[in-house]
Design a protein that fits this description.
Helix content: over 70%
Distance between the termini: 6 Å
Largest sheet: none
Number of strands: 0
Structural class: mainly alpha
Shape: globular
């Protein structure tokens, strides 16, 4: 309810490198973020007034966001559990609110999965999960175990790089050259095989996979996200820092980047300083909120709503393998960081709404 904080958050978000990147690219992130924030705003409005019809809209927006990017596939369940805890002492809403939210989301997702099963024999929500498991997670684990380059392993698995539609059969042409016995299989059968093989590799090397997940989480949070600026400032499209760190490791990657592209390293260091300052302001905003500097009955519960959804996205990104090791997958939490950072710029004196 604080207009100054809201306006400050909007200005901070407008200058975030990821926001600038997304303003010049035709990718799904911007649309997804709009739908997700509409859902989050409706959840906050429900917590303010306890009107169930508002929660219905929150569920519909969340379902729409999931159709754009499946990363929120499990978020409705997490939000329902959060509502159950928050409303534990509210008669009549403890069960109704989580149920209304889930009923507003899950039928749409189930309908799509039924459609997938009927059309292709694949019963999950999105085949990108199996693609990532096989060509990213399992490939990266294998590369780590065998001390090889990630891209070399992925190519040997039959991955067709630089394709814009991973759902089409032509993705599998190099893959089918390695597995000619699968030429007559349906997409669902191929994806099931990929899933089984990827899980087998990951289970056999669980420690390596856990270490990679932690690396991916670090990259998601701290990679500056200045790839577009690399192209503008340094013609020739130098190697992206994510690719270098993925292949060389978290210890040697930054050193190699600094030696090979010193000006790129300096640019990313500058963005990293700005991003670190943003995080520090966000932490200060959380501290001020916890101390009760911001008056209002909605303050505490909305704070946990923001922090809880951020933790959800960080957890999903960390477990997403090579696909998650990118600043792009920090996009859903950046509005939250900007809101908290704007709150952190306020003086310590009591702020009335």
């Amino acid at each position: 309810d604080n207009n100054r904080i809201a306006l400050g958050a909007a200005w901070i978000f407008a200058f975030d490198p990821l926001s600038v990147n997304n303003s010049v690219k035709l990718i799904s992130d911007s649309l997804f973020l709009v739908l997700f924030l509409l859902s989050l705003e409706r959840v906050a409005e429900f917590l303010r007034g306890h009107r169930l019809r508002v929660l219905v809209l929150a569920g519909l927006w969340l379902a729409a966001a999931t159709f754009v990017r499946p990363v929120t596939y499990y978020l409705s369940v997490a939000l329902a559990l959060g509502l159950f805890v928050v409303l534990a002492r509210t008669p009549g809403l403890r069960w109704k609110a989580p149920a209304v939210l889930l009923i507003s989301v899950l039928p749409w997702l189930a309908a799509w999965q039924i459609r997938n099963w009927v059309e292709t024999g694949y019963g999950e929500f999105s085949s990108v999960r199996e693609i990532n498991l096989y060509f990213f997670d399992a490939a990266e684990v294998t590369a780590g175990v065998e001390h090889r380059k990630f891209n070399d392993v992925r190519t040997e698995l039959g991955y067709l790089q630089f394709t814009n539609d991973i759902g089409q059969d032509y993705l599998f042409q190099p893959y089918l050259a390695l597995h000619p016995d699968q030429a007559g299989w349906s997409q669902g059968q191929r994806l099931a095989f990929m899933h089984t093989e990827a899980v087998r590799v990951i289970r056999a090397h669980g420690g390596v996979y856990l270490r990679l997940c932690l690396t991916h989480l670090f990259m998601t949070v701290f990679e500056p996200g200045a790839a577009f600026f690399d192209i503008l400032l340094f013609p020739g499209d130098p190697r992206h820092v994510t690719g270098i760190i993925r292949e060389e490791g978290l210890a040697r990657g930054p050193i190699l980047l600094a030696k090979t592209y010193p000006w790129v390293a300096a640019e990313k260091a500058a963005f990293a300083v700005v991003m670190l300052g943003l995080y520090l302001l966000a932490v200060r905003g959380v501290i001020l909120a916890v101390r009760g500097v911001f008056r209002g009955s909605m303050q505490n519960v909305c704070l946990w709503l923001l922090l809880g959804t951020s933790l959800y996205f960080l957890a999903v990104s960390g477990a997403a393998g090579g696909q998650g090791a990118s600043s792009r997958y920090r996009v859903p939490i950046m509005p939250v960081v900007c809101i908290l950072a704007a709150a952190g710029t306020r003086p310590k004196k009591t702020i009335a709404h």
